[in-house]
Amino acid sequence: MADLADVSVVMPAFNAAATVERALASIAAQTLRPREVIVVDDGSTDDTVARVRSMMGHMNGIRLRLFTQRNAGAGAARNRAVAEAAGGWLAFLDSDDEWLPAKLERSLRVSQDGGLIMSSHNLFNVAPDGTETLNDSRARWLRDPSDPYRTLFLRGFISSSTVLVRRDAVVAVGGFDDTLRSAQDYELWLAVLAGAGRRFETFADPLLRYTLAPEGITSRIDRKVACSLAILHRHMGILKRLPGPVLVPVLLRALIIHYEAVQGYRVRGEWAGVVRQLALCPLRLAEMLIRLPFADGDRPDFLARLKPAEEVSPCAA
């Protein structure tokens, strides 16, 4: 249809029966609608699939596609959707979040007018009790628009449900690292921005309702530390290829990883975790010094590993 934008929306879903219809409805209500939404059910044990199927035919002209897989994580689910996507642009929406109506129109306009490869924006945090709080820090964290890769390297500030990115840029770097059980989105945005240069912008409009989940994956501190360190090991090799300093950002990123872990354990009152991270920090700094000369920044093509998948039809059992 001529009035649909050349955008495929990527939505991983795991046990999202309570929220996925709301998320899909927020896409159907866009002032500029995408051509398709691809939901990949990641081995849900509730009736997520039935809830998605119930929305087929109720998407305001948007094609709703559904795939299922055994539980393999959000990265694997997103890779399936990326591989199947027909749009020139990819937009991401988690199954428990909601877009505001102008999100897609505004993101596409900013991206096209600026000749961008990727964009993101501010958001509203939604607490479990429904209270909404404006989070306007995302745009402010991009302190150096001329070098967004280095800004993101030090601290992740991009929420996946705010991202609009060229599909060919995601395919070129090989998609999401589905071996990471945490922060695989942060790692992909780094990979994309390493080649995007200045063609990225985080703009100020708050166009997402982001659901805070205290017991979600971001609360699993040890897992987050392990994945963050794995990402650092890879990307310090990529950092070496780019202009500018290397050693100081690498050590500073390692310090930030451990500082955030210490803060997380301190808030919980888990003092053993605090002590463990403080003890490990100097060892990890030394490890970075040893690894740095040998880091090559190689990144596998994760999309190439995918096997063919069959799309679920509206009347499938």
Would you write up a description of this structure?
The chain has 317 residues and is of the alpha/beta class. The chain has two domains: 209 residues, Spore Coat Polysaccharide Biosynthesis Protein SpsA, Chain A; 75 residues. It contains eleven helices and nine strands. Strands 1, 2, 3, 4, 5, 6, 7, 8 and 9 form a nine-stranded mixed sheet that branches. Helix 2 links the parallel strand 2 and strand 3. Helix 8 runs parallel beside helix 9 and helix 10 packs antiparallel against helix 11. The protein is globular and about 55 Å long.
Query: What is the CATH C level class of the largest domain, in words?
Result: Alpha Beta
Low-confidence stretches: none
Average pLDDT reading: 93
Q: Per CATH, which architecture of the largest domain?
A: Alpha-Beta Complex
Distinct helical segment count? 11
> SS-based structural class?
alpha/beta
Distance between the ends: 29 Å
DSSP strand count: 9
Compressed to H and E, one letter per element, the order equals EHEHEHEEHEEHHEHHEHHH
Looking at the structure, what is the overall shape? Answer: globular
Total count of domains: 2
CATH fold group of the largest domain? Spore Coat Polysaccharide Biosynthesis Protein SpsA, Chain A
**Biggest pleated sheet:** 9 strands, mixed
CATH superfamily of the largest domain: Spore Coat Polysaccharide Biosynthesis Protein SpsA, Chain A
